Amino acid sequence: MNGYRIPARCFPGGLLWLSLSLLLFSAPARSQQLESVLPDSAAGAQKTPTTAAPQKTASQDSGQIRGQVVDQTGITITGATVKLTRDGEPTGQEVTTDEDGKFYFFNVPPGSFHLSFTSPGLETREISATLDPSETYVTPLIELSVAKQVTEVRVELTPEEVATAEIKEQEKQRVFGIIPNFYVSYVPNAAPLKAKHKFELAWKSSIDPFTFVAVGMVAGFAQAGDRWSGYGQGAQGYAKRFGATYANVVSGTFIGGAILPTLLKQDPRYFYKGKGSTKSRLLYALGNTVICKGDNGHWQPNYSSVLGNIAAGGLANLYYPSSDQSTAGAIFGTAAIRIGEMAVANIFQEFVIPRLTPNLPTRAPQQGDPPTF
Question: Domains of the chain: which residue ranges?
Fold first, then answer.
């Protein structure tokens, strides 16, 4: 039993313990009796001692590992976690540093080992070494530095800011680098326009230098053909034709491109498709004369353009000569003609204009692409 005593309370009433005690005390006597009846040779063999070779246990070779942990200023770190792992062991041992920053591992088998040191807010430190039999290994002073803070700053523009940036790009779109083409978006999922964006586009288009050049040319053709004859000829007649033509441009642009789109929450721009078969793109261009994208991103009837053409035609009667003022039927007829003109313009926008416009913004098609007809 090697001196190990079994407490009596482990057995009910101690009866079993008492029985075992009696057997133990009687064992020597029985041994002597047995020895007396055995032959001398057997007895001698029984008495011959055997010598066993001493066995070296792992505990005799075990060593210790200890050390101290400080921060980069040399102040000891209390409560730092130190983990010991050894090759071939699935799990390791962990201890924490005491108030002096010291740590200890006892009864460590010899061989290679690995130590890791962690503490909140500090960078992890790791070391590896080899422990010799019965060695007390003292690690170098372990210094933990403050962990580097990596801050990710993500700046996201609001939809209004995105729309403002896209409008600035649109205002650079010029056919042949000269003719303004502000009402076309080459970004399929462009941000919705606020009211100020719609009025900005109308204003920039109305005051563009090329607009005045184009109005002057149209007024010149009108005077040469004696259109609006009530204005007469000469410089005064040209000035009136110029004013009427410019009024048509401005009223049509603001009513159909700013006022009604703001009230009806519609986008006045043409969204370039640029992909698919020729037929699908042609149908898309024609369809965009009567449909448009709403501020909510959904496609809907283009009330702004249709009503804008009608309103601009009616407004023209306020400054046309009485002999050239249109009836209600003529106004609707003119609106229908303008819708046809818009269809032709959309076809040019889809197939021709992009080739003649330098430095167009390009982006991969994404959610919000124009529908395929």
Answer: 62-144, 159-356
CB 313 within 8 A of CB 337: no
| Sequential pLDDT tens for the chain (373 residues) | 444 443 444 444 443 333 434 344 444 444 444 344 344 444 344 444 444 444 445 567 899 999 999 998 899 999 999 999 988 777 889 999 999 999 999 999 999 999 999 999 899 999 999 999 999 999 999 999 988 766 666 678 899 999 999 999 999 999 999 999 999 999 888 999 999 999 999 999 999 999 999 999 999 999 999 999 999 999 999 999 999 999 999 999 999 999 999 999 999 999 999 999 999 999 999 999 999 999 999 999 999 999 998 998 888 888 888 888 888 887 888 888 888 989 999 999 999 999 999 877 654 344 444 444 4
Whole-number Å distance between alpha carbons of 320 and 58: 113
Closest CA to 60 of 2, 109, 120: 109
Nearest of 109, 119, 128 to residue 81 by alpha carbon: 119
Answer left, alpha or beta for residue 115, where phi above 0 means left and psi between -120 and 50 means alpha.
beta
The answer to whether the beta carbons of residues 366 and 190 sit under 8 Å apart is no
H-state helical runs in the chain: 15-37, 40-47, 58-61, 159-170, 195-206, 209-224, 234-254, 260-264, 278-287, 303-316, 328-351, 353-356
| Burial degree of 215 (CB within 10 A; 0-12, 13-18, 19+) | buried
Report residue 87 CA to chain centroid gap. 41
CATH 3.10.290.10 fits 62-144, yes or no: no
Give 13-55 as a DSSP string.
GGHHHHHHHHHHHHHHHHHHHHHHHS-HHHHHHHH----PPPP
Q: Are 86 and 112 in contact (CB under 8 A)?
A: yes
Q: Which amino acid is at 93?
A: Q
Question: Do the Cβ atoms of 239 and 154 come closer than 8 Å?
Answer: no
Burial class of residue 154 in the structure, from the number of CB atoms within 10 Å of its CB (0-12 exposed, 13-18 middle, 19+ buried): exposed
pTM as predicted: 0.57
Q: What gap in Å lies between CA 227 and CA 316, rounded to an integer?
A: 14
Taking only Cα atoms into account, the Rg of the chain, rounded to an integer number of angstroms, comes to 49
